[in-house]
Amino acid sequence: xxxxxxxxxxxxxxxxxxxxxxxxxxxxxxxxxxxxxxxxxxxxxxxxxxxxxxxxxxxxxxxxxxxxxxxxxxxxxxxxxxxxxxxxxxxxxxxxxxxxxxxxxxxxxxxxxxxxxxxxxxxxxxxxxxxxxxxxxxxxxxxxxxxxxxxxxxxxxxxxxxxxxxxxxxxxxxxxxxxxxxxxxxxxxxxxxxxxxxxxxxxxxxxxxxxxxxxxxxxxxxxxxxxxxxxxxxxxxxxxxxxxxxxxxxxxxxxxxxxxxxxxxxxxxxx
Length: 271
Known about the structure:
Layout: H1 3-8, E1 12-18, H2 23-38, E2 43-50, E3 52-54, H3 55-68, E4 73-83, H4 85-90, E5 95-98, E6 103-105, H5 117-123, H6 147-171, H7 176-180, E7 187-189, H8 190-196, E8 201-202, H9 205-215, E9 225-227, H10 234-239, H11 243-260, E10 266-268
Parallel strand pairs: 1-2, 1-9, 2-4, 4-5, 4-6, 5-8
Antiparallel strand pairs: 3-10, 6-7
């Protein structure tokens, strides 16, 4: 079965990353990247519409993209929002395009916990904790953080932040101090990102597709773009892609993400 692989060499692969980045995103994207490599697509259009997400999953996707970029041309297209972990993933592409009004940036790390101590006091509920060390219940929801705990978490956040900054600096050929000058959690537009050196060009996804074709010597007018996506669940195939169903699924995904990542460092833009 040689012909499908030859056909793929005259096509552009497309992978879309939407919503919060977590383990499901990582599994889907890594699987799609493997297909891109196996079928020998000459170029990949990576569409990113994400506020970011978990640190480890973002790093694994970035690393896979970085390895693949040594073999094929990858163009990242930033959509409505490509912030925090979305930016980090985009660094795996050698070529990046954003819309002038794309919301991007938010380079930084956030960690949140919940303190319900006052509420628990009011209703007369308390917890007895037996632990092997003083920091085993760090970020426990029934008490305030101690100063040593705050220091430990701040060191963790600072280390994760430094990894982020160094990746952006290396990928975009910028000095670390230059990246730090705007990597303070702020968001900016695609037009501002161009001035800062985060993206290479301004344009739509269609223009990014044409750019990808041109980079590998294919005709942008005739070269098809093949989207690689996982098979939809049976319910989704039966009911179709109505806006209502998509909205419900999106809301449930976000609630699940919030619950699963409570107390975790995140490369995530929270609006």
